[in-house]
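Notes continue from the previous slide.

Worked example: a multi-chain complex. Inputs as given:
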Amino acid sequence: MANVHCDEEKLYQRIADENITIHPFVWDTLYLYIGDYISAINCIAFYYTEKNEPVPIVDGHKILRYTRIMNEIVDKILHPEKMGKEKERLEKIKNEQMLMHGVVRELVSHYISNDIMGINLIVSFYLDPLGPGPIPVEDTKKLLGYTQSMNAFLDKFRKATFKAKGC
Amino acid sequence: MEKVLKVLVVDDENGVADYMQRILALKGYDAFMETDGIYAFNFFKSQRPEIVLIDVDLGYSEINGIELLRRIKEINKDTICIMFTRITDEDSVAKAKEYGALHYLYKPLDTQKVVDVVNEAANLIREHKEL
């Protein structure tokens, strides 16, 4: 759902030419922490789309909470220098300075952060005290689209950058 | 009339367990959820669901999803187990295969794909019963 990055081809070409990778531990942490939340948002949106019912406010708040946590985690993984005292895995990323290449940061920020923001904006609009209330099916389908977009990006990006253990 | 199959969803993320269970109930299954491995195993022993969806990472649970799979298969090797795992967790994928999981689906999950795999598993069970 995020627009295609204006330099997408060039950036992927740089990943290939310069053999830019992401540490396997960072990949694993990214999947561990945000995989659950993307899955949960996908489940909630899928459920109400199947029922053809708006997402109630209470479930909108759950989605909003998931997007906030994802945002925080992605931000910390992209910028370990910003981390304070963290959970074990994040602490390891910080201490061992598993920094991401600028190209990687650019693509992850563009796709993941924009999709998270897209979800956040839709849900926040309906949940606002002055907002219209439950999230209608048409916009719930957009939430589904954002989760599918993140899945697709992660898959493509992993294939471009993931190196097996020991590499 | 076709017997309604029992499906148990085990995931430490309540949002996944809760809604996956609701979705499978919508699709005509007798669906249940647990967020803890030990509770899930106790549920399995008492209710004997035919299909169990298991997240490999069960957070603070005393046993992880792989151990739950092993214990379930020890009691009834015909129970169909479908694992949720991370694509980067190769060890768990290998163990899940070793202990006889039918499928392993990677997180982040695509809910439609989960439903398709459960339907496929249900067809296998029904075909097996007809033989």
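Summary box: Chain A is about 70% helix and 0% strand. Helices of chain A lie at 8-17, 24-51, 57-78, 88-95, 102-127, 137-161.
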